[in-house]
Amino acid sequence: MFPLSLVNAGVGKPMRVEIKSGESYNGHLVSCDNFMNLILRDVICTSAEGDRFWKLPECYIRGHSIKYLHIPDEVLDLVNEERQNRAMQNRNNFRGRGRGGPGFHRGGGGGGRGGGAGGRRPYGHHQQNQQQQQQAPQQQQQQPPAPAPQAKA
To answer: Where are the compositionally biased (Low complexity) regions (predicted)?
Structure first.
């Protein structure tokens, strides 16, 4: 799970941001961009020493200056639930077996009784098959009939 997706899931939720200078900002997250620049509303800013406080209607925090983000547990739970739901949907929405599974696909044949050749055939294989089929009846006619087995008394 990426930090940016976690922060985006917290839009509208209260959050505390501590910046590198030591100041902390408590407020509701309005938006977050790809550089993790944040906009908070109804903000209470606390000095680095913790002795001064300011109330701000809205503030912009540059992503580069962020040291810590304190995200509520409910946002973490929400993100985990969404991830599990997405995984369940992906498991249920598969379409077929993909390439390489058993079945009819490129280079087919070769799976049933008798083995089969499968794959590509060399150039002119149709002519070879025809020649073999023509020679087979001729060979059967040339062979003498086999003698019948005799019973022993």
So the answer is: 127-143
